Amino acid sequence: MDLCEEMQGAKPFLKWAGGKRQLIPAIQAALPASLRHTRDLTYVEPFIGGGAVLFWMLQAYPNIRQAIINDINPDLTTAYQVVQQRPQELIKALTAIQEAYYRLPSEVARRTYFEAVRAEFNTRPLEAVRNTAVLLFLNRTCFNGLYRVNSKGGFNVPFGRYDQPVICHPQTILADSRLLARVTILQGDFAEVLGHAPANSFFYFDPPYKPLSKTAAFNAYATEIFDARSQERLAALCHDLDARGSQWLLSNSDPQNTNAADSYFDDLYADFTIRRVQAKRHINSKADGRGTISELLISNYAPAPGLQLA
Ligand SMILES: C[S@@+](CC[C@H](N)C(=O)[O-])C[C@H]1O[C@@H](n2cnc3c(N)ncnc32)[C@H](O)[C@@H]1O
Questions:
Q1: I want to staple 205 with a disulfide (CB 3.0 to 4.6 A). Which of 30, 66, 158, 250 is the partner?
Q2: Which DSSP helix (H) or strand (E) runs through 172?
Q3: Pocket of ligand 1 (CB under 6 A)
Q4: Residue 19 backbone class (left: φ over 0; alpha: ψ -120 to 50; beta: rest)
Q5: Over the stretch 182-207, which tens digit does the pLDDT of each residue have?
């Protein structure tokens, strides 16, 4: 049984590029030992994405009194608010969509339905529950379950050819809703989160990855691009947090996977602890697209004894 199956039903309600599910054991090993004993802990995740780490943390650390999450993508943050506050309405809306979809007689009919729903989504903002139901439907029926938008913010992932995908999973929505009761949901740039977090907060940062190659660039979570300037703003914020005494952990891709001499993050985070861990990841240059690659875990506290350092 893996770590996520141990969760009592609470897990990401959306498939999201860059999901950290597979990295949870490495993240767990890299957390400060003192976290378990911190009273009234605040957990802050400024790039929430699908929330794999959040849902795991909230269950593994019952001493988290409150969490603060944020993302720049408003479809995503609205979805977290709807799951938190209106789970029954969401389940009702999704059940209706699922029943209509399952009744469709052919793949052509399902594709036509998908394209009509995608066109409706692209007229957003829709009413919050409808926006979220449609987002979840598209996530379950589009190719590879991706969220990708063009430069004008239009969702442009094609139809995915699944016969009976699970569109509504009430147990997950209800379990997530219960856990999200302790969570404040913000929408905006990561730098704005700082003002909402008390000094004894623990931060986990999972920014969009620095692409391993130009062709592997995945930067379409939102219309805003996360470029080198953004990486440097984030490093500056990490220095500020360190100065005010807050602990943080950050993950990123390791540019040394493709260029052993690339010391971009080693330089940016030279004042802190840098670990290299192995993770399974989709790799464009390999025929079957699979492989193990190194990822960076960077923190402003010393690792637990016995952890391998880079
Ligand atoms: C690598 S993903 C996070 C994945 C997440 N840890 C998971 O397990 O699913 C990065 C997230 O950062 C968000 N993002 C991009 N630029 C941002 C910014 N300037 N401020 C806050 N969030 C941003 C994206 O919308 C995306 O959801």
A1: 250
A2: helix 170-179
A3: 16, 18-20, 46-47, 49-53, 70-73, 189-190, 206-208, 221-222, 224, 226, 230
A4: beta
A5: 999 999 999 999 999 998 899 999 99
* Residue 2, both tokens: 């893996």
Q: Say how many Å lie between the CA of residue 73 and the centre of ligand 1.
A: 8
Beta bridge partners of 58: none
| Cα–chain center distance at 144 | 16
Q: How far apart are CA 200 and CA 189, in angstroms?
A: 21
CA 158 → CA 55, 103, 138, distances in Å? 29, 21, 9
Residue to mutate (ligand 1; options 47, 139, 238; most atoms within 8 A of CB): 47
**DSSP secondary structure code for residue 135 in this structure:** H
What is the whole-number distance in angstroms between the Cα of residue 203 and the centre of ligand 1?
Answer: 14
Q: Residue 250's beta-bridge partner residues?
A: 205, 298
Question: How does pLDDT run across 52-106, given as a tens digit for each residue?
Answer: 999 999 999 999 999 999 999 999 999 999 999 999 999 999 999 999 999 999 9
Does the model's pTM come out above 0.85?
A: yes
